[in-house]
Amino acid sequence: MAKKLSLTVEQQKKMDDAFQQSRLKLIDLEAALEKEEVILNSLMRGPQLDDAKILPSVDRIAQDRAELEKANARFLLAIRHVLTPEQWNQLQAERPAAPGPRRDGFGAGRRGGPGPGGPGRAGGPNAGPPPQE
Residue 60's pLDDT is what? Predict the structure, then answer.
């Protein structure tokens, strides 16, 4: 892809730096979200539903998802700043269409979008089932 976009060595370095800076944060955020989802699932399976525990867990999940989305957007914004408008347009044209409408130009977002997981991770740190709506 770097060759297709004609990225300079400097652009590649800036993009690698942005990825490395974002990667650990995204891993931590995804782990926190997954942990909260496991907790909520166990609360929902109990014989007695305890709203006083379930509702705060739902709030924490919503907050964790928001933080993950913001971190992912910051990473993508950093990448966008490195690319020229022509390179960005070419990258957008090269990527497969993301499911669902997005108007921000960044793709599918959490859980299945083009996150900074890199080619070795299926969906990056955003892999997993889609959020419930």
Answer: 97
Domain boundaries, the chain: 7-91
- CATH number 1.20.120 given to 7-91: yes
Q: Is residue 98 left, alpha or beta, with left meaning phi > 0 and alpha meaning psi from -120 to 50? A: beta
Q: How many CA atoms lie within 13 A of 32 on its CB side?
A: 15
| Contact (Cβ atoms closer than 8 angstroms) between residue 131 and residue 65 | yes
Other C-beta atoms closer than 10 Å to the C-beta of 82 total: 18
What average pLDDT is seen over the chain?
A: 79
Asked if 93 and 73 count as a contact pair (C-beta separation under 8 A), the reply is no
* Tens-digit pLDDT profile for residues 23-72: 999 999 999 999 999 999 999 998 899 999 999 999 999 999 999 999 99
Q: Could you say which DSSP state residue 19 is in?
A: H
Closest CA to 132 of 65, 43, 32, 45: 65
